[in-house]
Every structure is written in C-alpha cells, then in structure tokens.
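We close this part of the discussion by returning to an individual protein. Part of our work consisted of pairing the sequence of a single chain with a tokenised description of its backbone. No coordinates are needed to read the tokens, only the vocabulary itself. The amino acid sequence and the backbone structure tokens for this protein are reproduced below:
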Amino acid sequence: MAKASSTLFAVSCSASARFSFLRRSESLKPSVSRARFAVPMAMAAASAATAKKLAPAVIVGGGRVGRALQEMGNGEDLLVKRGEAVPVDFEGPILVCTRNDDLDAVLEATPQSRWKDLVFFQNGMLEPWFESKGLGDTDQVLAYFAVSKLGEPPVDGKTDTNPEGLTAAYGKWASEIAARLQSGGLSCKVLDKEAFQKQMLEKLIWICAFMLVGARHPGASVGTVEKEYRDEVSRLIQELAAAAAAEKGLTFEENMVERLCAYSRAVSHFPTAVKEFKWRNGWFYSLSEKAIAEGQPDPCPLHTEWLKELKDRPRLFEFSAFAGKVVQVGNCGFFASAQDLTSEAIEAAGVTVATEAIHISRVDVQILMSVKKPKLKEATIVGKGMIVRISQETLGVNPTKTKD
C-alpha cells in the first residue's frame, strides 16, 4: 500500500453515515481501563441526590453517549473501550454504547455469563440480531437525547406533543437506567415489552422515513424535511407503519405522523442520510423482498421506489481538507490521514463518516494522500457509480454543497 502523507482530508456529503473501522485483524485485549471523570457542575446539582444510589455499571464505548452516561454515575463505573474485554466479576448492568456494526465484537468480548446484564442503546431494528444470538428478551433503551460534542451535557428530546420526554427503557435493568438518566436531568420511562416494541418501531419508522426523504433532497436537514417535504414524509411514515404493524401483529397509537414530525422539530438541525442500512431501512426492504418472493404485493412500494431511485442516481461528493484537525464539515465529514482512520479517533472527535465515500475511497484516498503535492487543489475519483471530487484548502475549511 502506498505510504500516506500527512495531508488530512475532510469528507462531506449528502449521505452521511457513521462507519466503524473495526479491523478484523485486531484481537480483543484482555485489559480493562477504569476511568473516572468529574461530573460537570451543571449536572452535579441534578445528580447529587441520586448518584450515590446508582449501581456501578460497565460502560462499553467511550464516545459521546458512553461518556455522558459515565458522568451521570457515582464515579465507580468501569469504562471499557473498543477491543477490551468485559470483566466477569464486575456486577451491575453493562451499557453498550457502540455502533451497531460493533455489536458482534462486543458480544465476543463479554463473558456469556454476563449476557443477561447487557443493555443496548443502539438505534434501529435489533430484533433479528438478538434472536440470532439468543438474546430475545434482552434489555434495551430508546435514547431520545443528544450529545452534540464529547464532554458536553446531553439535551433531552422533549417535544410539543410529548413534553414529558420520549426516552424509554425495557428489561431487568430498566429502573436502574431510568434513575441514572434522571440523575443527569433527562427523562426516561420504564415500559413493558409490548409498549417498548411499539415505541422502538416508531423510532425506526422516524429514522427510515426522514432519512430517506432527506436523501432525496440533498442538503435537507430533518427540519427541512418536516417543513418543506411534509407530504412525502407523511406518506412514507404511514406506509412503513402499516407494514410494521402487519409484520408484528400490533396496533400503533393514533397520530404517529404528528408525533414524529414534532420530534423532527425538536432536532431540526440533524442532517439526513440513508445509513446503517442493515439495521434501519434494510428491515423494511426485507419485508418487501419476502412479499415479492411469495407472489404478494410489495407492502412498502414507495419505500422501495425511493431506495432504488437513490441507488441509481449518480452523486457528487465534495471533499474539503486542511491539515491538523478533526472536525465536522457540512452534513458529515472527517479529517484523517491513513494512519488516523480508526474508529477510536473518529468517535473521539464526535464525527459522522460517509459510508459510501469511504467504500469508494478506502484505497483511492490512500493513494491520493500519498501524492506529495502540497499545492494540489482538486482531483476526481470515479467508482461504483459515484463521482467523488476532492479539493484541498490549505488554510482552512471551505465546505461546498453536494450536487446531483
């Protein structure tokens, strides 16, 4: 492989997606780091009365959510970073705060005797994965709160239709999780299995619908979709809700469209992208594939049509770059030299990575970065139906909009 230069490239695109660079060759290390962090003053007052009562937890993942959960604790939590083993003799819940694609590695690093204590904070449809691992009734949390930067306090996702908050927990450790979140000033409901499944599916529908509609309109934020493309997203929400209800044999509460649009207004700045396909839109697409294979009508025809529309549409991704920093640009982006392309570095920076761009440029960008031309202004890479334009700004970031 060509040797990479120190030039750092930032990725920005209309289809942002977090991408984990977990290397297959990396072995799981047996060491565990115990890290203690001071609770920020803003959070200390809210948590002082309850923090001492919280059970110490193992927290897997040192990103924004994992660190925030640790700061809500009483200083006795155990932080387990990627690649480290979960101890067998540390009692209490195991809060899993990694990316979905890292879950296999997390399970491998966790003694099977401790699987009953796992609590999953991931978005998306996890049920097929749970069933494949024998975790059918495991603990889950629907996290409707956001941590914008590493170390900053979380912001609760309360809406005008649900001012009491939307975050919910289910399972053995649900009450403990609720107490921890409440100690940090966040809301959290404890739900039974059926109620939790409905809310989980609603959030899945929100992610799949708003991200897909937004991806059809490059540069559109969640708020833009809610305000300018309300008809499109409403139709898609209703279609996905009907398919999910039929598949799971349940009935959703009325006014789902308004609830999901209200949440979108609360997080209007969020960028949109079809990402983590296996865990999100992929579940609905699998329902379509199954029905068609059985000679039945597609339960999600609009969803299928728009996915294929995105797949067939060439896209131009703009890359802006300068050396020395790791920051976000536009809808998504990261600055990294080849040696910096690690999930730890990206997670620590709180950055979203463009999956499609990385798939194209895993080799191409490394080759480009090996070209020692500090005055390089622009290069073009064509691959997998996408055109990638790479531009360099030596004095700073000059993000450009993604074009069709």
Notes: The chain has three domains: 9-15+313-391, 41-191, 202-311.
